[in-house]
TrEMBL record:
Keywords: Cell membrane, Disulfide bond, G-protein coupled receptor, Glycoprotein, Membrane, Receptor, Transducer, Transmembrane, Transmembrane helix. This is Trace amine-associated receptor 1. Belongs to the G-protein coupled receptor 1 family. One of its GO terms (molecular function) is trace-amine receptor activity.
Amino acid sequence: MCLLVCFQQTMSGNGPETRIDHGPVLCFESFNNSCVRFVYPSEIQILFYLFFSAISLTTVCGNLLVIIAIIHFKQLHTPTNYLILSLAVADLLIGGFVMPPSMLRSVETCWYLGDMFCKIHSSVDIMLCITSLLHISFISIDRYYAVCHPLQYRNKITPPISLIMISLSWGLAAFVGFAMVFLQFNILGAEEFYFDNIACKGACIIFQTRAASTISSFLAFGLPAIIAVSIYLKILLVARRQSKSIQHSTDVGKKTSISINKTEGKATKTLAIIMGVFFVSISPFFFCNLIDPFLDHTIPPAVFDVLLWIGYLNSLCNPFVYAFFYRWFRKALRIILLAKIFQVNSSQLDLMGRRD
């Protein structure tokens, strides 16, 4: 889960200031262009650190279990699960690499990890967001063939095709994320305004012009969302037609048809919920990111910070969705936690059972 890092540090005259006897508290007292720091009470800081650390740790552990399950059990080596595996890797990286520095920035309200790491952190944040969006789009294509063209599914969606989808997701996302930050496409045409009015020592932000915000929001969020939602609506219509057709089918093939329909329908429903949670969690951030340049960057930094963490929570939610809807994941989870995966031939165990 994935996001443009848009936490804008407050500056003198542009946001709330924490004042002491001799003026505002600065991130770096020795620099004239230092950002202003908002100082939380120590008790609040401790609570924030505990809360954000719990989110980060739970995200890493939950997605690590998904990764281990799909890699270890051969029965789960399917094109759909390869996409789920790759999505879990992106979520794990958000929990393990993106969240901890973001936690430090959110609690301290300053960036103390250096300009180069700020660029790397921002690039990875953007990359993982776009990666997740592209995975959601490709998963919707996988579900389209599974439900709408079941006879063609095994020929159209093969493991090599899934690997191509995964490679495209990571490759395109990495190019966009690192190019935007390191080549500064986001401030193109507004460099002077940015360095004179926005940039300050102790900030780690992605400032965007109106053009950059519009283009990036459409390509990184709007277009994948339109594609995924359109495909799932098509799937819904086809599934309804199939349901009516099954009701009028002969008894000879009826049981098999119903079994296939239930299996694919359950998987499609689960992945649709994952898509819905993803879009609900990140859409407020992208909306604010889109309109902020048109409001002369007046949206409070605290609002962006809250929306940023709401978006991060999506990476925590996915393993719980799998656990709730997928019987195979619950069974795999028990086997992993009881260390039974170290037993001989444990990778050959049947996780589906008769009900899935």
